[in-house]
Amino acid sequence: MTEQRSPWARPPAGAHDPANPDDPAGGVAYPPAPTAQTPAEPAARTPAEPAARTPAAPPRRPGYRAGTVTGLTRTPAPLAVPPADPAGDRDPARRNRSMLWWFGGTAIAVVAVGVVVVLAMVMTGGGSPFDRRPAGPSDTRPDLAKLCPPPSHDAPGGPPAAPPPPGPRTDDAASGISYASYGEPWLPWHDTWTKGTLRVSYQTGQYFVTESYQDPLGFRSQYLASILSGSVPAANNDSLSLDLECTGRQVAADVRAEYYPQPNQMDVLRDEQTTLGGRPAWVTTFRMRFHQAGLKATDELVGVALVDVGRPRAAILYVSIPGTHRQYDWVVDSVLDSVRPVG
Question: Biased composition, Low complexity: where in the chain (predicted)?
C-alpha cells in the first residue's frame, strides 16, 4: 500500500522517495526558502519561450510545516483515559484476601470481647449466661387469687334466700347485692372511694358525718359513719370458685391495715363462714381501737362481709360506726342480715 503523504511535506535533502525509485534526487526539487532580502524581479519570459512542464512548487510559509495527514483527514478525538482506580488494586484475588483479613479480624475481636464478658461474670459471681432459663409467663391473676388459690370444691350453698325485709333498700347491681337503707341521719353515697392494697372501690351505699377535724397534714376533714358496697376480683380468669375463709380474712386484714390510723388494736367479735341471702359468705365483725391527733373518735365498730355472688368478682359490704355514735351500733348486724343477691 502506497504511503499517503501531504503534498506540502518534503523529505530532507538527499532522502530517497520510495514512491519514485527512479528519482535519485528524492522527488521534486523545491526552491530554497525565501530570505528576508527583497527578491529580485524575475526576468521577463519571451513569448517564444515555452513554459516549463514541471509544476510550480507551492510557496512555503515561514514557521512549522504541516503534519503528515494535515489537510487529508480530520484529527481523531483523543481516546478517553479511564480514571485511576481510587480503591487502588483491582486484582480480585488480592481484594478477596483483604476482605478475608478484615472479616477474620472482626470475628477475632468479637470472640475476644465475649470471652472477657464471660470471665468477668464468672469471676464476679454472676454465673454463666448459659445457666439462665427463659422466664415463664407473667402472673396476671388478681391479688386475692394469688393470695388465695381456688379450693378443690365449691362452698356449700345455704337454703334459698328469704324475701328481703320490708322497707327501703339499696341496690348495687354492679356488685350483685342489695341491702336495707336507713333514714336520717343517713344520706345516699354518690362518690367512689378506693382504698387498701386490694383496691376495693366503694361506689354505692349511705353515710353521715360524725365529726369534722384537722388531719395531720393540716387539712380540714370529716369523719364518717358508713354503709358501703363494692366488688373485688377474687377468682382466676372465669373461675367462680372462691376460698371464702382466705379471701374474707384477707379483706378484713386490708381494712385494718389501710383504713385506720396506725398503730391500732383489733378486738374480733365474729369471724366465720355463713350465708347471706342464700349465698356463701365470710363475715368478720370487730371493734377497732386507735388514736389520731385532732380526732375525737378512738374506736369504731366494723363489719366486713365478702359474698360469693357467682361471679369472678366477689361482693364486699363494709359497715363502720364510730365510737362517738354507739347508738347506731345495731345497724351493723341489721344491714348484714338484710343482704340479698341481685342480678
Answer: 35-55
Q: Of the candidates 70, 52, 53, which has an alpha carbon nearest to the alpha carbon of residue 61?
A: 70
Supply the mean pLDDT for the chain: 76
Nearest to 323 by CA among 290, 294, 293: 290
Full domain range(s) for residue 248: 165-341
Q: Amino acid identity, residue 44?
A: A
Residue labelled with grid coordinates 398503730? 263
Can you tell me the distance from the alpha carbon of 75 to that of 70, in angstroms, rounded to the nearest whole number? 8
pLDDT for 267: 97
- Characterize the bridge pairing of strands 200-214 and 187-188: antiparallel
How many domains, in total, are found in the chain? 1
Q: Tell me how far apart the alpha carbons of residues 332 and 188 are, in angstroms, rounded to a whole number.
A: 17
Q: What is the CATH number of the domain that holds 270?
A: 3.40.1000.10
Calculate mean pLDDT across residues 336-342: 96
d(CA 286, CA 267): 5
Alpha carbon of 320 to those of 32, 207, 329: distances in Å?
A: 142, 9, 9
Domain annotation covers residue 287: yes
Q: What is the pLDDT of residue 150?
A: 67
CA distance 280 to 310: 9
Residue 61 is assigned to a structural domain of this protein: no
Residue 288 pLDDT: 97
pLDDT in tens, 263-292: 999 999 999 999 999 999 999 999 999 999
Sequence-distant contacts of 259-262: CB under 8 A, at least 24 apart: 259/195, 259/196, 260/288, 260/290, 260/300, 261/290, 261/291, 261/292, 261/295, 262/290
Closest CA to 303 of 290, 322, 284: 284
Closest CA to 303 of 263, 337, 327, 280: 337
